[in-house]
Known about the structure:
alpha/beta; Rossmann fold; 4-stranded antiparallel beta sheet; 8 helices; 14 strands; about 40% helix; disordered N terminus
Amino acid sequence: MLYPKTYAEETIEMMSDMKILMIEDDKTISFAVKTFLGKYGMETGVFESLKATENIDINKYDLVILDVNLPDGSGFDYLAYLRDFSDIPVIMLTVKDAENYILKGFSCGADEYITKPFSLPVLKARIDNIFKRKEIKEEALSYKDLHLDLKSMTATIEGEKIALNRQEFAVLEILLSDPDINIPRERIIDGVWGYDLYEVNDNTLTVTVKRLRNKLGRYGLNIKTVRGIGYAWESG
């Protein structure tokens, strides 16, 4: 008898042919990551410097694990360069967990940020989550009877359309994509307004969130202000 695949089985199958580019000069870390992810069928190509990556074809990889402090340059600079032509998912690694480092990583376009030392199973879970989010983003996001159609950019509650402008929809999409995660204001602003900074002042995001809360009715209460950081979608 054939049984439907579980989500875990589907995830393992999806990851089995994944190719990862890792730029890390600590051989102990890169060996541990390469060995651990190899158990899940992921192939990790390790490079110890930025110069070593000069002739690689980034399109052959599905994900980048990038150290911030490299012997010949900054991982932040490499990420900024990468974002000029590629949207490949990037996980930043660093020994520094200061808020300004984390915010800088997200503002440069990082998808995840992990501080050293880190758990290998947690790294694997972060990788799974990135591709789970990418798969969901292709179609829709939902929370109970609140639904976002990402292709038509429409939002509904119990089938009734909510009149959201582009910025409100984008803020809601960011929050629903990472429920129960504290998302820095800077990351939201960059994701919604990008480089159109002339549109943004200190109060722009606050006002947008206030309007969004009002339009969502009872679901507006799920948008929590995280003092000193930003916002989070509380799913509990």
